[in-house]
Amino acid sequence: MSFRQMGCWGLTLSLGVGGGVLALLLHFPIPWMLGSLIACALAIFAGLPVQTLPIALERWMRIAIGVSLGPSVASSIQLSGDDLPFAIAAALSITTLTVFIGMPWFARQAGLPRPAAFLCALPGGLSMLLALAGDSGNRAEVLMVHAVRIVIVVVSISLLARFLGVPPVPDPLLASLEWHNDTSPFVLAGLIVACFILAEKLNIAGGHVIVPMVLSAMLAAFTDINMAPPTLVKTLALLVFGMVIGSEVAHGPRDRYARFFVASSLFTIAIMCLAAVFALMLVPLIDQHFLVLFLALAPGGIAEVSLVALALGLDAGMVALVHSCRFIYIIGVGPIGLRWLRKSLASEA
Question: Does residue 128 belong to any structural domain of this protein?
């Protein structure tokens, strides 16, 4: 590691923290994520040597998010009744419609080959989709499309929450730095380290969220161990995700940035409108707030969308549970569709 690289990381961290604090003072929704995201993206556009944080740090934050989600997932499973399958069926239906609409859209509007357009259309997280992509081409374009989508989802849902009356935290700075709670720091640290090692060994797409979420859910359901990571852990995760996503968006393919940005933005807005329609249809059937159902059906990864739910004080367990089912569906069906498209493209060459 060179001194120059350390200096670039230091600049990234300074911009992220500074942007988060400024957003907090300006009363932005989810300030630590949005502030750090905007600050890093604008700095890159201005030509500053901002460098994306080490991938290992993002993985540790995904583990922390998974541990945070586990107790909520366990509670949602215990309290859910016959209405949960409606939400899962809606999520899988939207996923299927998204692919059928999105693949020709990105092939035509972004000029991508069908396999890359297929990956752009899948409404999953960045890590999962890049794992499906393997060493195929157009990785930068796929990353760009999904990074823009995540930004739009996070910003729009945060603003919608404020519009719908989700109350802001009374003292946001002190609340975001709170550490003390009933969870033993040794148990929490041990669980995070164990889950990180296990997720690294398994090496499956999305494992850095799924593995800790399942293990902490089992601990919450079958033991008396109180698993409630302090708010500071969530704040650090928001800060890191904001810096990472902001850097990914700004480091996109500059020569075709406008084309991909417009294609991804229009598609994301259309899919979010579809998710809103499904959420409104589910409100009479499921005893949940519209915003919870909207988050559960919104395009995006488990970590990003669930983190928004946690930050807004919503039922993150329900959101994570539905997204986990969609994740399993994509992991099962996605490689089959991608393999078929690649063979089809090879046969036409």
Answer: yes
